Amino acid sequence: MKLKSTIQTAALFFMSLGAAQQSQAQIVNGGFENWTKLNRLETPNAWTSLNLLAEFGGDSANCVKSKDAHWGKYAAQLNPSYFVIAGDTLPGLLTAKFTLNNRPAGVRFYYKGMPVGTDSAIVVVELYKGNTDSTDNLIADLNWVSGSKVSAYTLIQEDFQYYDSRTPDTAVVTIVMGGDATSFLKSKMLIDDIGFSAYPADVAADVPALKHHLYPNPSNGKVFISGYQQSGRTELFDLNGRKVLSIPAGASTADLSALENGIYLYRIETPAGLVSGKITLVK
């Protein structure tokens, strides 16, 4: 069975077992900090993995809580495992479904991985309006695939391809480490801090996530943090993914004047999850 078919079948199967659709405008538990143990193995809260199959017929978990995190305590590690009952390997897989009320520009996350042979790390995000079983309801999607070895956490940013002007109400996120045929047991990937990136300008101003942003944009050095009363730490990164500034929780302003002119990515901790965007510095 081809990998895409395996992904779709597994995702639909486990969601049918009761993987809840999360009522949030951001990707819930995208930092993979919170996990729940099911029998012997753990799965990140708000996500579904193939660990349930591993419990009853596998040799090991294919989704693991890793302390090798980009930020915070944990990241999610995906690796294929041997499924004894089927006599074949299962890809490492995480999937989740979230509600939306906006049109995010794309998705960003931090990744490092060591695929073996023909295995690849894959992130697929699909946005729907209505029933997610019908391709007629597909509003936008993105597909990221990498078969390269990446030894240090790298910021990945991918934009959605939109197919019409409707606002989606559901996002389906699928993350995989595996191959088209038999996956290699020594392959693995680590993923952390996955979230929606900046929102297009035509999004309604009352979108909850937009209550947390940096302004004015462009800035000449001094910026204000909208929604700072409910915000945690704010961090700025350059376009290579290097953190260049950390702003403590509760701060209402920040001074960027020590940075070089250019475009920077920011990430704000909020009660709804991580909110990210871009800001341009012109001094």
Compact description:
The protein has helices at 3-16, 51-57, and strands spanning 35-38, 41-44, 48-49, 63-66, 75-78, 81-83, 88-90, 92-99, 106-114, 120-128, 138-146, 150-159, 161-162, 170-178, 188-196, 214-215, 222-225, 234-237, 243-247, 253-255, 262-270, 273-281. The chain has 283 residues and is mostly beta strands.
Q: Could you characterize the architecture of this molecule?
A:
With 283 residues, the chain is mainly β. The protein folds into 2 domains: 3-196, Jelly Rolls, CATH 2.60.120; 212-281, Immunoglobulin-like, CATH 2.60.40.3080. It has 2 helices and 22 strands. The strands form 6 sheets. The protein has a 6-stranded antiparallel β-sheet, covered by helices on one side. It has a 5-stranded antiparallel β-sheet with strand order 4-5-15-9-12, with no helix packed on it. Strands 19-18-21-22 form a 4-stranded antiparallel β-sheet, with no helix packed on it. It is globular. The protein starts with a helix and ends with a strand. Mean pLDDT is 78; it is low at 1-9, 11-24 and 200-210.
